[in-house]
Amino acid sequence: MAEEALLAVKSCTVNLDVDGIAKAVDTALKAGNSAYSIMMDGMAVGMEEVGNKYEAGEYFLSELIMAGETVREGMQVLVPYLKVENMKTKGTVVIGSVRGDLHDIGKNLVAMMLRSAGFEVFDLGVDVARERFVEEAGGRKANIVGMSALLTTTMGEMKEVITAFQLAGIRDRVKIILGGAPVTKEFAEKIGADANGRDAIEAVKICRGLMNTLRRG
Amino acid sequence: MREESEIERRIMSVFRGERPDRVPWMPRIEHWYNVNRVLGTLPEQFRGLSLVEIYRELNAAMRLYVVGDWVFGFLQPPYGSDVMPTPFKTVSGASWMGGAGEGTEEMAIKREKAGDEITTEYKTPFGTLRSVERSSEHGRAWYIVEYPVKTVEDLKILQHILERTRYGFDEEAFEKLDQWLGGQGMIWICALRSPLQRLFIEYMGVERTVISLRRHKDKVEEIMETIKQVDNKCYDVIKKSPIKVVNLADNLDCRIVSPDLFKKYYLPYYRERCDELHRAGKYVITHADGFVKTLLPLFMETGLDGVEAVTFKPVGDVSVEEVKDAFREKLVLVDGIPYWHFLPEVSMAEFEKITRKVIHAFPDKLVLAISDELPPIGELAKMHRVPAIIEEEARLA
Q1: CATH number at A92-216
Q2: What's the whole-model pTM score?
Q3: ipTM of the complex model
Q4: Under 8 Å between Cβ of B237 and B196
């Protein structure tokens, strides 16, 4: 019964059933599942399948957004039952579009997918100053910093942010991942970033990999 | 009506299906020019020259885009202080891409600039819509940071505004602009985006539109129909204008517009618009500057004459060969050289390779340019190299 109810939560997530997930989550709670388990074994597993469908070309950005909305609906039911002390995050990420860049769709999706995958995400928004990246990453003990830029005029700022981390003496404490249309693997390597993600799904995979590296290190 | 200049004839021959004497080269450098002008980094030889004079120096044709009440690349009040004649006017109501015309008795419009933000407020009997645009890239670009439609209930207010929107055309302003251009290119128009794309980009933002379309489909489809009907008035003005190439300016990206969405909401719309514009003697293109792989097979069904800004790998998601196969020597490719290749980290040899590859792939159906603009840090030497490559290729052909 409890297992079945979890599957129903997962199914709502995968099928983007934004109107049905609240009831499914409620049923799963009543069936004896913990809120944490519903979140991780129901919704997060569902989101992973959504990601697979995206990679297979079966789902598109619209579906990712709707999956995020479906999870958000489910979380509204779940939040009162989640005990903060029992929460195990997969890692802490500070994310933002760099100074001068006001684009946010890709960055928002990465934040949403990371949250759904169990990461704690602090979204700094758009037009973020390099000092703020450093301050927030340091203050929140972030494992990963995500930077986004869509413009060739702002991608140069990514290097400045990395330099700011070096000057603050905390570059070796965080992994830095880049995203945005003009950002290539070569560019990421050249400016001293740890990785770049082509889309939100790849970004999650990279962040998981980076966390493994950090744990091993 | 003046005679076509040599440059114009070369460009139009591509659309007419005639082989041009050489590939037309029609890059968009306005953004590069303006950012470097503001920063004081414009190359020495171009200082003091107007944009059209720079095009002459570069041996390139200018694609002068009229975008509603402004001319692309020139920031007029309240955005900036450039003075350019603007042939299309939003007489009242909501204009292209965030702009606004005059208010009416049933709709007060207030537009204020403060610092790097412009706030627009539409007050109607149904309520108020407010949007905020913020400048970026050294004040040479503006982005909507607060969309006017926040909830589906706001769609009723948007409908009221749209129904009171009127458009006009100023022939004298067109003549002045045409004289300024002096045959060194063509005036094209970025027309109003298609209904769903307008909701995505101008009125609601992508996330809100996607969610609303799923949860309140009837209301969203109703406003899309209103947009289409109201836009007919604008297209009537465009059809009567002397402009020959109309860009539906959709900024398509298949990550946002899936094939299913495209088939349902864009294909029927494109076919209808293309039909009516063709009947008026216009050529029609759209702007597809994002990923396009899954849309490629559908472009042939749209009725479009060409597609602008398709960006090849590594920035885009398609190869030259894939686009060549999809366009079947019928659709015109406008642009072609990815902007990325103009960056300093890309060698001249690599740049030449992609340029020649694009020319060879689309011998008769190409208006060669940059997909989609020269970046402010783009290399000028590469800009100078393109006309030479075109000449070499023309000699070899």
Answers
A1: 3.40.50.280
A2: 0.91
A3: 0.85
A4: no
